[in-house]
Every structure is written in structure tokens, then in C-alpha cells.
């Protein structure tokens, strides 16, 4: 065991050992394959010790993983195959990854195929123009990216923030993006936390755009600070959202938290216990 790994395990505390021994006792049905975690939640830990951090994440009961771009690449210094093998060995599946739609997208797609993941999710607007014309242009780019991914046997998608819900001449830009992208080519990952911060209702989108949101980011938000917080401490009615799973057609739910009361692991332990209590 390396010095870094010893310090890492010591830092995460005894709760991680308990959950490693008895994840089903601690978290019950939350260990459903439909619950995953966005690795940006553990960005510092993943950068320091990717394999050790993945072990700790598995001990919390997670079954699916969504990666994110980092200074060490899409897989935190691991090769796509190493990432797949590590997750498989821990009983988790690398399902999705946050990437940029840029000049390196062909390589990004090839890496995703090698990793065995199903989705490539563009994590933010490729350009900064908050206009209807720009969103129509981006929609065309997304459709092309979706077709390129489809030809390789993977799926392309987009993850929202708050700014997509701005309007131009009464037209919500996110709605425009949905209207101008092909449902079979562009799969939306709805970040529920940013939806409510923008003053919108996720249920409204599930009703108006059925089947468009196979992925969620389940994230509670401190509405005053506009930053993420532990489940039950913010403005998202998580119980109500979970009751909408069937209606929305969601297939993969990734928990994400970017700010913490103490440490990422303690926050995620809280979040998993919260879900188990519903």
C-alpha cells in the first residue's frame, strides 16, 4: 500500500470501512444499478489516486460511474481499458462520460468505444452565444455528433446548466435546443438542480418532451448560494423527483455534488442514506 493510499483511506474515515463490509445493510435498495455517481464529485481524489478512489466509491454502494474531463484526461490517467477493467472488477459499470465537443472529438469517441461506455455527454455549450440563432447552430452540431457516435455504437448527449433556460423573445433556449435536435441522436441529461435554480419544473419537461431525458443528474441545490448541497438541505424535492422516474423514462441517475459540508465521501454517504430512507 502506497503512502498516498494510506493517507487517503485514513482521511475517508471509518464509515468507508463499514460500508465496504455491509453496503446492502447500510443503503438497502439504493444499490440499484440505476444509481450512479458523477466522478467530478470526487475530482481531487480521482486526480491523486484514481484506482483507490474508485474502490472507496464502490464501497458506498454505487453501481454506475460517469467520468469527467480532468487534467489527466477523460479517465484520470488510466487508459480507457484500464478504467473499464477497474470498474468491472469493483462491480461497477462505466456508463457515461462528460466530454467537450471539440477538435479532438474523434479521439474522444474512440476512447469511449474502448472503455465500453454507452454515452458521451457534452458537458457545456460549445460556444458562448446566448441567442436563438446560436442554439439552432449548436443543435446542428449536436445532431452531427450524435450521428458520428451512433455509427460507432455509442450515444451522444448534452448536460444542462442554468444558463440554457434563459429566453430570447419569449423562447426558452433549452426548449429550442430540444426542438431542433433529433431524439434518436441527442440524448439529454437533465441536471435537476440547475433546472430548479433556473426557476423551471423538471416535471414540465418530462411531460412536454417525453423520452428525451434518459439520464439525470440528481443534485440538491442551496437556492441562495446557487451551489450544490447534501440531499434534503436544498430546494429540490427529491422525493417528488424520484416518483417521476417511470414517467420521465430515465434509465441512469447520477448523483453529483460539487460543494460539501465536510468531505466528498461524507456527503455521498449522507446522500445514499437519504435515498435509502425514501
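Q: What amino acid sequence fits the structure above?
A:
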Amino acid at each position: 500500500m502506497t503512502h498516498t493510499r494510506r493517507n487517503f483511506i485514513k482521511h475517508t474515515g471509518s464509515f468507508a470501512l463499514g460500508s465496504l463490509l455491509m453496503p446492502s445493510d447500510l443503503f438497502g435498495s439504493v444499490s440499484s444499478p440505476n444509481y450512479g455517481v458523477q466522478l467530478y464529485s470526487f475530482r481531487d481524489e480521482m486526480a491523486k489516486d484514481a484506482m483507490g478512489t474508485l474502490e472507496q466509491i464502490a464501497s458506498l454502494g454505487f453501481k454506475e460511474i460517469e467520468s469527467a474531463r480532468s487534467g489527466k484526461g477523460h479517465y484520470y490517467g488510466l487508459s480507457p481499458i484500464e478504467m473499464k477493467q477497474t470498474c468491472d472488477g469493483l462491480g461497477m459499470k462505466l456508463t457515461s462520460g462528460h466530454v467537450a465537443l471539440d477538435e479532438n472529438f474523434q479521439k474522444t469517441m474512440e476512447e469511449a468505444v474502448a472503455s465500453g461506455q454507452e454515452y458521451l455527454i457534452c458537458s457545456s455549450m460549445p460556444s458562448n452565444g446566448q441567442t436563438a440563432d446560436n442554439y439552432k447552430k449548436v443543435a446542428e452540431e449536436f445532431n452531427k455528433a450524435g450521428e458520428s457516435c451512433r455509427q460507432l455504437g455509442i450515444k451522444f448527449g448534452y448536460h444542462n446548466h442554468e444558463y440554457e433556460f434563459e429566453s430570447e423573445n419569449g423562447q426558452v433556449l433549452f426548449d429550442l435546443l430540444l426542438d431542433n435536435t433529433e431524439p434518436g441522436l441527442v440524448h439529454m441529461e437533465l441536471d435537476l438542480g440547475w433546472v430548479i435554480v433556473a426557476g423551471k419544473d423538471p416535471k414540465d419537461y418530462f411531460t412536454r418532451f417525453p423520452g428525451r431525458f434518459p439520464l439525470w443528474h440528481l443534485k440538491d441545490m442551496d437556492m441562495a448560494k446557487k451551489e450544490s448541497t447534501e440531499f434534503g438541505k436544498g430546494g429540490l424535492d427529491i422525493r417528488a423527483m424520484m416518483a417521476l422516474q417511470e414517467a420521465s423514462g430515465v434509465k441512469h441517475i447520477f448523483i453529483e455534488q460539487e460543494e460539501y459540508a465536510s468531505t466528498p465521501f461524507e456527503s455521498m454517504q449522507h446522500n445514499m442514506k437519504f435515498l435509502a430512507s425514501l
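Q: And what stands out in the fold?
A: The chain has 14 helices and twelve strands.
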